[in-house]
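#lab-general

N.A. 3:47 PM
ok so I finally got the sequence cleaned up, no stray characters, all 78 residues accounted for. can someone with queue access submit it? mine expired

B.Y. 3:52 PM
send it over

N.A. 3:53 PM
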Amino acid sequence: MSRKCQLTGKKANNGFAVSHSHRRTKKLQQANLQTKRVWWPQGNRWVRLRLSTTAIKTLNSKGIQAYAKSAGIDLNQF
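B.Y. 4:20 PM
back already:
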């Protein structure tokens, strides 16, 4: 499974680590992903998703069904 949020599509960002002498080396800034079991009332079951912490916060306010519909995801696949 790739390191990508299943609802928002967040993934790693390329950047530079800059030292005190201003030498720049490549660095990969990963998204803060968590594996989360979410209750899906319409499907009457648990769904296991890999979500960013921002998506978890939004999920608590919007709800799983509305959020998945806006992201264009079919929850029956999970």
